[in-house]
Amino acid sequence: MDKEVRHTYDEIMALIHAGAVRASEMDRRWNERHEKAMARMDRAEARMDRAEARMDRFERKLEAIGKLVQAGMKMLAQNQVEAREARRETQELKKSLKAFLQSRNGHNGNGHRRR
């Protein structure tokens, strides 16, 4: 082969080799970045799973609190009804006691013998 052709051939081969090295380096860097991205994605998914578990626990607690509030409201309504009935009974008892005391006319039962 002629020296000039050989020189041109060597330059072309050097360029091809340099391109192959660059391509290999780019592949290596891309693979590293891809692996890091996949690791980040795995960590993000794990965080999301933990967050969903926390939300599920929170929702269950919130539902339980809601049930407690509803039960408490029912109890409060029942207590109010019972309190009204107790007040009504107390008023009736006061009236009957007052009527009883007035019917006695202030005497202990032996007052009719005095004269």
Task: Describe this structure as you would to a colleague.
With 115 residues, the chain is mainly alpha-helical. It has one domain (3-102). It has one helix and no strands. It has one helix at residues 3-104. The longest helix has 102 residues, at 3-104. The model has no long low-confidence stretch (mean pLDDT 91).
- Helix percentage: over 70%
Global geometry: rod-shaped
In whole angstroms, how far apart are the ends? 165 Å
Radius of gyration: 49 Å
The number of helical elements comes to: 1
DSSP strand tally: 0
List SSEs in N-to-C order.
Answer: H
Low-confidence segments, given as residue ranges, are: none
Q: What's the mean pLDDT score?
A: 91
Descriptors:
rod-shaped; 115 residues; mainly alpha
Write the layout of secondary structure elements.
Layout: H1 3-104
Short description:
This protein has one helix and no strands.
